[in-house]
Amino acid sequence: MDASQDEFAIRVRDLVVGFGRQTVLDHLSLDVRRGEILGLVGASGGGKSVLMRTIIGLIPRQGGTIEVMGQSTGGHGRGAATTWGILFQQGALFSSLTVRQNVQFPLRENLVLSQELMDEIAIAKLEMVGLRAQDADKYPAQLSGGMTKRVALARALALDPPILFLDEPTSGLDPIAAGDFDALITTLQKTLGLTVFMVTHDLASLTTVCDRVAALADGRIVAIGPMRELLQSEHPWVRAYFHGKRSQMLQHEMR
Amino acid sequence: MGTNCPDEVERVNHEPLLLATPSGDVLNLRPEGPWTAANVVALETLSRSVGADVDQSRLVTLDMSGVSALDTLGAWVLEKLSRRAASSGRSAEFVGVAEHFSGLMDEVRQVNRNTPAPTAAPNPVLARLGDLGKSTVGAREDLTIFLQMLGALFMAVIGVLRRPRSLRLTSLVYQLYRIGWQAIPIVALITFLIGAIIAQQGFFHFRRFGAESYTVDMVGILVLRELGVLIVAIMVAGRSGSAYTAELGSMKMREEIDALSTMGLDPVEVLILPRVVALIIALPILTFIGSIAALYGGGLVAQFYGDMGPAIYIARLHEAITVTHFEVGILKAPFMALVIGIVACSEGLRVKGSAESLGRQTTTSVVKSIFLVIVLDGLFAIFFASIGM
Fold first, then answer.
1. Cα–Cα distance, B351 to B340 (Å, whole number)
2. Cα separation, A204 vs A146, whole angstroms
3. In this complex, which of A95, A112, A157 lies closest to B40 when CB atoms are compared?
4. What is the distance in angstroms between the Cα of A146 and the nearest Cα belonging to chain B?
5. pLDDT digits over A48-70, tens only?
6. Is B73 within 8 Å of A193 when comparing Cβ atoms?
7. At B232, phi and psi to the nearest 5?
8. Cβ-defined contact of B115 to A190 (cutoff 8 Å)
9. Nearest-angstrom CA–CA distance, B130 and B118
10. What is the ipTM of this complex?
C-alpha cells in the first residue's frame, strides 16, 4: 500500500481496445484522483463511452492494466455495485420495476436487510436526489427525462459506492434541469465523498462541476488538467473543441 | 473475526459497536467502528437492542466521535434512533460529529420527513366489479380498433387499386418470403406429424369393430376440412403474427411510424397492407402444403401400422373425399389470414413506450388471434353446414 494507491481511485495504463481491425483506444493512460470530479471530452464516436465501458468491464480490453481502488479489475463480478455506481445515458432503469424497487434492487441483491429499512433507505436516496416519496410507486415509463436520470442516480448510489460513473448525465435535459443536475452531483460528491468520472459534451458542466478535464483524441488522452489549463492547450483538436464558435460564446458569457 | 483479533483498534475498524450507558433518565449512546451498508445485519441488531432503552429515556445523546466510517445507510440507522428518541416530547442530540460526516448527517436529517399515507386497499368486491367493467369497455374498444383497422385496410386497398404504382411490391415480396417460404419446413413437419397421429389413432380404435378402412375417410375429411387450415393458421399466428406485432411495436417505440406519417405517407399503406396481403396470399398456400403433408403422414402410417398399401390408401381417399372438402378448408384460409394480420398489426400499433408493453402486446396479439381463428372456424362450420357444403 504505497501513497500512489491511496491517491488514485482509477489508474489506467497502456490500455488498448479495438473492434476487429479498428483500434479505438491506443495505449491510453489516465489517472483519476480520489474525491475529484473528472470530466472526459472527446469527439462523438471517439471512444469516450468505450473507455468508460472498458473500465467498468463491459468491453474486453486487448492490452494494458486497469486498477480501481488499488485493485486490478477483471470483468464485473458480483459486488461490483459496492465499488461503483453507473448512470447510463438513457437511465437504464428496469422497466418492469417501480422507482422504489429499482432503487432497492442493488440493496436487495447485495445485502441482507429488513424490508422496512430497505423502504426507508430507498426513500432517503430518492429524497437525496431531489425526488419526492410520492414518486416511488411510479414506473419508469411514467417519468420525465430529468426524473429518469435522478432515479438512475439514486439507484447508482444505493450502496454508497466510492466511485460514480456518469455517461452524458445532462444530455437530453433542458438547461435548467441540467444546471440542477450539475448542482446535485456537486452536492452529493461533497456529501458522500465520491470520485466522479463523467463523460460529457456539456461545456457548462465541464466548467462548473469538473475539477479536472481530460481530452480524448486519436485514442489517447491528449490533455488533462483543470479547465483553465485545457483552454491554454496547443493540441489542435483541443483548440478546435474549446475555441470553436459555440465554445467561444459560452466562455464569453462566463467571463 | 473480531474475537480472535488481538488489537482493539483493528476490532473497532472491522465491526460496528453501539455502547449504551444510561445515567438516570439520560441515555448516552456511543456508536463505534464502521457504520456502513456492508455491516447492515449488525447495525439492525444493534439499533433494535437499544430500542427499549431509548424509549424510556428523557434525553438521548449520540456521541459520534468513535465512528470510523459512515455511509447513508449507517447515518440513517442512527438518525432513526434519534428520531425515535425525539418523539413524544423527549429529545435527542448528536455530539462529536466529525467534520467529514457532518454533510451526510445533515442530508439524512432532511429525508423521510413526510411519508405519504399508504393508500387503503380497495374493497375486493368493488375491485372485481371494477375490473369486470374495465374489461367490458376494453372488449368494446378492441372491436372498435379491429373495425378501424379493417376500414383503414379497405381504404388502402382502394388507394392501391386507383394508383397501382403505390403498392409496395418489394415489401410484399419480402414478407411473402419471410412468412410463406421460410415457414414451409416447419408447417410441413407439424402437419405431417398431426396427420400421422390421427391415422394411428384411427387404425387403433377402429380396428376393434373392424372399421379400419374408414380411418382413411376420417383422415381425409378431418385434415382437408378442419385440421389442415386450423393448425396452419395457429402456427402462422404464433410465428408471423407475433413477429408483426413486435416489429410494428418497436417501430412505434422508436417513433418510426410517426416519422412516416409526418412525411405524408400512410403507415397502413406502407407497413400494414403489404404484411396483411402477404399473409392472405401465403396462408392458403401453406394450408395446401400442410394438408398434403398430413395426408402423406396418414398414408405412411397406413402402410407401416395399418397394413394398407399406398394404392389402397389412395383409392380409398379418392372415394372418401371430394373437391368440396378441399374447398371448404382452403376458402377459410384467407379470412383467417385477414384476422391474424389485423390483430397482429393493430396490437403492434398499441405498444406504448416501454419494453414491457411490447412484450404484453405481443402476447395479447398471439392469444387473441388464435382465439379469433378458432371462433371463426366455428362460424364457418355452421355456415358450410347450413349451405350444405
1. 17
2. 17
3. A112
4. 16
5. 888 888 888 888 888 888 888 77
6. no
7. -65, -40
8. no
9. 21
10. 0.75
C-alpha cell at B353: 413506450
The Cα of A96 is separated from the nearest Cα of chain B by a number of Å equal to: 6
Which has the closest alpha carbon to A182: A39, A33, A44? A39
CA distance B338 to B280: 6
Residue B42 CA, chain-centre distance (Å), reads: 41
DSSP helix/strand/coil, B63: strand
Strands (E), B48-131: 59-63, 67-70, 91-95
Q: Are A110 and B41 in contact (CB under 8 A)?
A: no
Q: Does B38 touch chain A (CB under 8 A)?
A: yes
Question: What are the chain B neighbours of A159 within 8 Å (beta carbons)?
Answer: 37
**For residues A164 and A160, what is the distance between their CA atoms, to the nearest angstrom?**
9
Chain B residue numbers with beta carbons less than 8 Å from the beta carbon of A192 are 71-72, 104
- Distance CA(B286)–CA(B280), nearest Å, equals 10
User: What are residue B240's phi and psi, to 5 degrees?
Assistant: -95, -35
What end-to-end distance do the CA atoms of chain A give, in Å? 43
Number of H helices, E strands in chain A: 11, 10
- Tens of pLDDT, residues A177-189: 888 888 888 888 8
Interface of B with A in 51-90 (CB under 8 A): 71-73, 76-77, 80
pLDDT score of A79 more than 80: no
Report the chain A residue with the minimal C-alpha distance to residue B71. A160
What is the residue-wise DSSP string for B229-260? HHHHHHHHIIIIIHHHHHHHHHHHHTTHHHHH
